[in-house]
Amino acid sequence: MTARGMFLTFEGIDGSGKSTQARLLAKHLRREGRDVVLTREPGGSDGAEEIRNLVLQGDPDRWSAETEILLFTAARRDHLERTIEPALAEGKVVICDRFADSTRMYQGLSRGDLRGLVDQLHNLMIRREPDLTLLIDMDPEIGLSRAKGRQGEEERFEDFGIDLQQKMRAGFLALANEFADRFRVVDGNRDMDSVAQDVTDIVMKSLR
Ligand SMILES: Nc1ncnc2c1ncn2[C@@H]1O[C@H](COP(=O)(O)OP(=O)(O)O)[C@@H](O)[C@H]1O
Ligand SMILES: [Mg+2]
After folding, report:
1. Which helix (H) or strand (E) holds 56?
2. Do residues 96 and 10 touch, judged by C-beta distance below 8 A?
3. Is 192 in the pocket of ligand 1 (CB under 6 A)?
């Protein structure tokens, strides 16, 4: 779309520190004088935030796996049209807390092997990949205990348990190999400032 805008995403298992690091990075880049849009998925636009409530709240069996993929894709399409692409066209840095890689993992792996369906819908309706994806990799035991510290209404996916978290961790690392050109893996098993320093170094290098 534009040479100047940059699309950055954070990925990783629940509790790995994505939201924390996305916030810290946005703060850092704004201090450097960059125009930053900090956003998240599912959500990030009015329509997509409404869909977020549909997918994250309620009974775990509220949606079939296939319907859930359609809802995530619909939310992403709206987010892309209304928030991400306009910001990139204006040369802004877009930082997104989770994006299509999370759907490849959670909707693609957790309820059977639906990665093919996820990819087909992505190719049909989304197509865009981030310029850079920061995978915060960490021990699922720690991630789970951190995530349990936060309580909220958005709990449809919160009872995944340790086995699925292990599977997701391995899946994200495999994804980092599959898309090695845009993925950078950061060790999340450290204090926030050390992780943030690595993130900043990687991003500043790639902004230059
Ligand atoms: N490096 C860290 N060390 C210790 N606690 C952390 C670290 N990063 C985040 N946390 C805390 O762990 C919890 C989960 O972090 P969060 O950023 O919400 O993770 P995610 O968005 O990946 O689920 C939060 O309570 C956060 O304050
Ligand atoms: Mg988060």
Report:
1. helix 46-56
2. yes
3. yes
Mutate to test the pocket of ligand 1, among 14, 20, 97, 150 (most ligand atoms within 8 A of CB): 20
Distance CA 205, CA 208 (A): 5
pLDDT tens digits for range 126-160 = 999 999 999 999 999 988 888 777 767 776 666 67
Is residue 189 domain-resident?
A: yes
Residue 45 lies in a domain: yes
Determine the structural domain holding residue 67 and report its residue range. Answer: 6-207
Whether residue 197 lies inside any domain: the answer is yes
Nearest bound ligand to the CA of residue 14: 1
Tokens of 167: 């599977």
* Contact indicator for 100, 125 with CB cutoff of 8 Å: no
Ligand 1 touching residue 16 (CB < 6 A) = yes
Question: What tens digit of pLDDT does each residue of 44-103 get?
Answer: 999 999 999 999 999 989 999 999 999 999 999 999 999 999 999 999 999 999 999 999
